[in-house]
Structures are given as C-alpha cells and as structure tokens.
Task: structure prediction
Amino acid sequence: MKIERHRPTPFLPFSPVAGLLAAVLMLSSLTLGACGDPPPPPMPSEFEFSIEAFVYDQNDAPVARVPILIDGQVVGYSDKDGAFVAKILESPNTDIELSLGDLSGYRFTSDNVVRETLVVRQGVGGAPVGLPITLRASVHSLKNSYLAWVKINCDDSLREGSCENMPIKLDDKVVATTDNQGKAHFAFEGIIGKKSLVTIDTPVYQKDSDYYVVFDPKQPSFELNLGIDNTVFVIEESFTDLIGLHTDRMAEKAKPKAATRRRAPAKKAAAKTTAPKKAAPKKEPAKKAPAKSGVIDLW
Result:
C-alpha cells in the first residue's frame, strides 16, 4: 500500500472572499485532473532519410562525376571529394536501391549497389528519425599517360610560314599548335584499350583571298592505339599546294612545244647525162729491140 504524506494545513481565520477563492481554485484543480495530459501528435506518414555515396580509386583518391542512381534513376553525381549526400522524403518500410552508374575510364572493384529498407528509430531527443542509406565503393582507373610529337613540312609551292601555327586536334579538340619549324608536342591522358584520333587542322582559304591555296593532303588524321605502356607517338606529314601544283602542270602543258629537229632524208643525186666513155685504146705491144751485135755504138 502506498501511503501519501501531506504537510499540515495552517489555521487561517475565515473570510468570505478567501472561502470563495479557495472554492474556485479547488474547482479548477478538479477540472484539470479530469482532463489529463494532451495526447501525443500522430506519427507522420513520411520521414526524411539521408542518402550518402562515396567513391574512391585504387589510390584512395576521390572520384568525381560518378552517376548516383536511386531505383534506377540518376539523381546526381559525386563531387570533387567523391561524395554525394542528399535527403529524400519517403514512407518508412519502403524498399530502396542506391547504386552507382558506370564512369568512362574506370571499373568497379567493389559492389556498386545497395538495397535497403527505410527504417525509423527513436532519436536522441525522443523524436523519431529515419536511418541513412550509405554506399561506399572503390574503382580502378583505366587511364594512362601518353605523349605525341608532330612534325609537318611544307614544300616550295607553299609560301614561307605556311606550316606555322597549324592547329593540332586530339579527338576534335585543339591541344597544340605548330611552331615556326612546323613542330608541336603534347601530353594527354587516355583509356587503355581505346583509340584516339590526331588531326592536323589544315587551313581553308577562300577563293577571293589574296593567297588562295589548297593544302594537300587535307585534314590528315592519324589513329593512335592506346596501350598499357606510356607510349610516345611520332607523327610526320608533308604538304603541298594542290592549286599551285595543278597550275604549274597546266602552265607546263600550255607552253608551245619546241619544234622537233629531224634530219631530212638525203636527196638522190640527179643522173648526169654524160657521153659514153670511149674505150681506152689498146696498147700495142712494144716492139722488140733488134738483137744487139757485139759492136758498141759510140754515137
């Protein structure tokens, strides 16, 4: 049995006003006792739940721009710290899927999906709170570093300086320009197993320009196979002026041809009408000297 102890009430002389006030106070006390404490507010049908995702590579460096998905729908991307934090308003006991989308140049080395049921617990102050959903994932970078050297040559059909300040594009983005010797180099990062395209962006001149040329070849491109090694790619190209070359050929064709000197056929000598040669007189045989006698002729 619980015994309640009360302090004795001090004796006070009776007063009509005092008696009336006491009656009012007693009545108020009885009314409050009959009502009791107010009922607690109804539980909300939806709560705030925190959604947290963190992505790091093999060197524990944060990875940005990783797609964050809730139930298959992209709701954001990881920031420069590799983190994504947001709040959703949802009913308790709802099943939810938090996942990470693929990012070019990386592959996941851990689970990139978590499936949880939203749960509400009593917080520190007694108020109900929704428990967070957290996903931590690791990825491995497939990127590698490369270097490219470009050397271009312009022949005599192009004026001096034509190979200077020539833009060099990597996958349609200008990454370098040639110097006064037609040389350029640049470093770039690529994905192992992929291909990149280097293009020499030859200028295009209008026909009404003071110097109208057509570079040949036009916009030459070179495909680079990106391997696992840190490779140095060497690219060399030579250019000529297609219009100048064509003009030179046409001018060469338009020149008058030099007459070809040929030896005229030898003329046959006219037959001479000469008198028939007389037959040479026959030589008479020499007379034999008479036989000499033994007499010597002194005369």
